[in-house]
Amino acid sequence: MSEKSPRYFAIKVTVGQERNVAKIIESKIVREIIEDGKTLRREIIEEGIYSIITLPNIKGYIFIEAESKEKVSLITQGIRHVKSRPILVVKKDEIIQHLVEKPIIEMISIGDIVEIVAGPLRGIYGKVVRIDKPKNELTIEPTDATFPLPISISADQVRVAQQPARESG
């Protein structure tokens, strides 16, 4: 029999139960040998399952790296919170783009509405009017101010609250 290369599969689960389902699947794959309250070693019970991935920004799905769809189907069978939907094959590139964390300043553009999440101005929303990437700094105008009052703030102290609809073309 030829060696199959591992592929990634998406399993639909109840939103908010991704970590619980991943832990249940792990317990079906790996057995811990415990003695005197200490874990001595872990044994692999089920071969062919290589990793279980939960992504915080993708709700309702977990991803399993395995050699076949049948292995994934067998291991997820009968687990509560796993939906009875077809198991989807996912390309590795689609998962990797969610694993690499981009600096916040790379994801912000002029016109975005941001919320200040740290410092004395915490809780204020504002529209981004200028971005200074070398200094990692943004200039925003608070949305609730009666007159334009530009504030310069570190990009680490904001989060994107709303992005305007961009025209694709």
Annotation keywords:
5-stranded antiparallel sheet; SH3 type barrels; 4-stranded antiparallel sheet; 36% strand
Walk me through this protein's architecture.
With 169 residues, the chain is an alpha+beta fold. The protein folds into two domains: 7-99, 2-Layer Sandwich (Alpha-Beta Plaits), CATH 3.30.70; 104-162, SH3 type barrels, CATH 2.30.30. It is built from four helices and eleven strands. The chain is elongated.
Tell the overall outline: elongated
Radius of gyration of CA atoms, rounded to a whole number:
23 Å
Q: Helicity level, as a percent range?
A: 10-25%
Question: What is the CATH architecture term of the largest domain?
Answer: 2-Layer Sandwich
CATH superfamily of the largest domain: NusG, N-terminal domain
- Count of discrete domains: 2
Q: SSE order, as H and E?
A: EHEEEEHEHHEEEEE
Number of strands: 11
| End-to-end CA span | 49 Å
Largest sheet: 5 strands, antiparallel
Structural class: alpha+beta
CATH class of the largest domain: Alpha Beta
Question: Unreliable runs, pLDDT <50, ≥5 residues?
Answer: none
Q: Looking at CATH, which topology of the largest domain would you report?
A: Alpha-Beta Plaits
Strand order of the largest sheet: 10-9-8-7-11
Mean pLDDT: 87
Q: Provide the β-strand percentage band.
A: 35-45%
**Helix count from the secondary structure assignment:** 4
What secondary-structure arrangement, pairings included, does this model have?
Blueprint: E1 7-12, H1 18-29, E2 30-35, E3 38-44, E4 49-53, E5 61-66, H2 69-76, E6 88-90, H3 92-99, H4 104-107, E7 113-116, E8 125-132, E9 137-142, E10 151-154, E11 158-162
Antiparallel strand pairs: 1-5, 1-6, 2-3, 4-5, 7-8, 7-11, 8-9, 9-10
